[in-house]
Amino acid sequence: MPAPAIQVDNLSKLYHIGASEQYHTFREAIIEVASAPLRRLRNFGRASSSDSNIIWALKDATFAVQPGEVVGVIGRNGSGKSTLLKILSRITEPTEGRAHMRGRVGSLLEVGTGFHPELTGRENIYLSGAILGMKRTEINRKFDEIVDFSGVKKFIDTPVKRYSSGMKVRLGFAVAAHLDPEILLIDEVLAVGDAEFQNKCLGKMDDVAKSGRTVLFVSHNMGAITDLCPRALLLTRGSLQADGSTPDVVSEYLSVATPDGYVDLRHWKSERSGDGPMRIEAVEILDSKGARAGQIQAGEPIRFRLSVRGKSGAKCNLSVAIRDMMERIIYNPNTSDDKATVTLPAERAIVEVSLQENRLARGDYSASVWLGDAMNVTNDRVHHCLKFRIEDSSLGQTRSKGLVRTNGQWSVQRRGL
Amino acid sequence: MNPQSNQFTSAMTADESAPAAPSEDIPELIIEAQKGWIPIHFGDLWRYRELLYFLTWRDVKIRYKQTVFGFLWAFIQPFLKMIVFSVIFGGLAQMDSEGFPYPIFVFAGLLPWQFFSESLSRSSNSVVGSSSLVTKVYFPRLVIPLGAVGGCLVDFAISFLVLVGLMAWYGIAPRVGILMVGPLVVLTVIASLGAGTLISALNVAYRDFRYVVPFMVQIWMFLTPVIYSVDIIPEDWQWLLMLNPMAGIVDGYRSAILGKPFDWSNIAISAAVALVLFFVGAVVFRRIERRFADII
Fold first, then answer.
1. For an interface test with B, which of A131, A135, A178 has the most B Cβ atoms less than 10 Å from its Cβ?
2. Considering CB atoms only, which of B17, B62, B294 is closest to A118?
């Protein structure tokens, strides 16, 4: 067996999430240095106070990818997928562990990397190509092909700032698609553009996958992952949770979610923000019979039950965002729009919102919850805390391909001559 | 797109990439945390020389986009400065200009100074200004300040033409010393890269430098013999002035252009300081570079 194209051993990345690391000023650095001995003295014998300010974005990831293999990487937002790609593409350094890459690496973390709005399409092809690691001769050779693929031939000598966002994306992808390193790292670039162009991109990706190159492909689009990658990795909160055939890993990903339609948020940290006095302690999904359920039939009313803790008598606003697997918000019921600001009847309260009209199409969804005070100042926000699946109703399969279902009123009548 | 052309193009790329693969062996790359001081990876920089070219080209290209005068600005700016300085310092203040007409005396100093100060201010903001690149794609980060300095070098070449015009106007014929301009340009690049890389890296970590640079450039100009002659400082104390690398360099340009004798010891001190600055800048840059994507 040949040596693996990508060999990753115990790769870990630590992030400090204190404000000081985010935006440092020189004065702060000086103060920090000056006060370091004092702080050490104060914390003597105590556990490091900064433990709560660190996050292992990636922890002990170990896997190998053989040359020519196409591997999908899935996981929720914040699970470490992007961190993994950033380390492998040398944008950021790992804190621990190592990765061994055999072959030229090309990474595609964004469409239109390095585009400058003042430059024309033609100029940007050269600039972006050079930034992505192409040689000038290589760009010259592929220039016509890139322009053809992008479909913006007419505007190739127009500054990119005059392009529509769709045109920019097309041109950006066209440049990137003509990159041919031995190892290609791709992050979620297909989540942009219109459906037609997305299909074109998927087609191109398929060509890439079949051309014998090694590909690591991060996406939220389970369909694309299943179509393109025979093998998938699942990351959960920075660690590698599953590694195997794509259908198995995808179903594990979807089931990790919340099989019983309930999540306890009291000690939840992932993708959570806001530190107001009011907290969301749990979220449940209930089906039409009032039972907790991770699976809801298409068309069946859904009810979300939120356990909220705060001062008795406090006013608060709540919001639930239902996203599909492509991270698009489909429904976003909230008390502000519904003129239903809640007054907490006690320190612990249960707030329910029901969606009588459930038009969600078949598929997998996630719910994010938000709690704010009467002025809509965020107290607590938890992204993607609850996963659920909409299944075909027992009455039969749905055929709609729409994002949401709707019932049409159909009629027919004899056509006069 | 018809399927035939598609097949043709893919066959072509396959053919062209096939011979390339065996000729260079598969590059191997080990990614792990680097400790301590990291040397400059010249091989990597060389591999990305085309990117350096494109970044320089982009800088030059967009600087004068949507301006009426376009490239003329590269002439106008130093020319106007020269006139203002000539009126104020040459005319009103009667500054000593070592016997040369003040306009050409000040211009011979302004030219390298302008190049240095522009390089310094552009490169010090270059990395922060390229944050979208730094967080999305790998390339040797040193290419960014290098590209900024490269763009200024183009402007420098253009304003050199103004100097040629001035020399003709005042009837100053170039002597053999003019050949020193080449090495002096290299020294200026070294000095501005040193300061530029140092500040661009520090600017990523501490945004305070954004406010420091314009102020620093102004002070620095008064510490450089641009509007005045080195001779106003007593011979014994000139070495102190030369600790400012631009002092010896600017004086050197004057000797090269106006044909006055070179003060080699002054140039040597400044050159040594420029090299130290370059080294310090590169080392600090490499030190902070690996955290760029995390803190930018």
1. A131
2. B62
May I ask the CATH architecture of the domain A6-44+52-255? 3-Layer(aba) Sandwich (3.40)
Crossing angle of helices B72-85 and B102-129, in 10° steps, is 130
β B28-32/A96-102 pair status: antiparallel
Q: A69, A214 in Cβ contact below 8 A?
A: yes
ipTM metric: 0.80
Asked if the structure places residue B81 within a domain, the reply is yes
CB A87 within 8 A of CB A11: yes
Q: What CA dihedral angle connects B8, B10, B13 and B15, to 10 degrees?
A: -70
Flag if B13 and A89 touch (Cβ within 8 Å).
no
User: What CA–CA distances, in Å, run from A295 to A288, A301, A363?
Assistant: 11, 12, 10
Q: Phi first, then psi: what are they for B211, rounded to 5°?
A: -85, -25
Asked whether residue B61 is assigned to any structural domain, the reply reads: yes
Tokens of A158: 């127009």
Number of domains in chain B: 1
Contact flag B32-A133 (C-beta cutoff 8 Å): no
Q: Name the CATH superfamily for A262-391.
A: abc- transporter (atp binding component) like domain (2.70.50.60)
B163-202 residues touching A, CB cutoff 8 A: none
> How is chain B split among helix, strand and coil, in percent rounded to 5?
75, 0, 25
Closest CA to B143 of B213, B62, B64, B40: B40
In a domain, B116, yes or no: yes
Are B128 and B201 in contact by the 8 Å Cβ rule? The answer is: no
For tokens 């400058």, what's the residue? A116
Which token pair is A411? 């009629």
Query: What residues does A364 pair with on adjacent strands?
Result: A389
Contact A134, A84 (CB under 8 A): no
Cα–Cα distance between A387 and B261 in angstroms, integer?
A: 80
Residue with tokens 């790359």: B29
Local confidence pLDDT in tens for the 417 residues of chain A:
678 999 999 999 988 765 444 455 666 666 666 666 555 555 444 444 455 577 888 999 999 999 989 999 988 777 888 899 999 999 998 999 999 999 888 888 888 888 898 899 999 999 999 998 888 999 999 999 999 988 889 999 999 999 988 888 889 888 888 887 889 888 876 556 666 777 777 787 778 778 888 999 888 777 778 878 899 999 988 899 999 998 888 878 866 555 678 888 888 877 788 888 999 999 999 988 888 888 888 888 999 999 999 999 999 999 999 988 777 899 999 999 999 999 999 999 999 999 988 899 888 888 999 999 999 999 999 988 888 888 877 666 677 778 888 888 898 998 876
Q: Residue ranges of the domains in chain A?
A: 6-44+52-255, 262-391
CA dist B26 and A267 (Å) reads 48
Q: What is the DSSP letter of B26?
A: P
Full residue range of the structural domain in which residue B273 is found: 38-295
- Mark which residues 41-60 of B lie under 8 Å from A by CB: 50-51, 53-54, 58
Closest CA to B57 of A127, A326, A195, A338: A127
Q: CB within 8 A of B52, min separation 6: which ones?
A: B45, B143, B146, B147, B150
**B89 found inside a domain:** yes
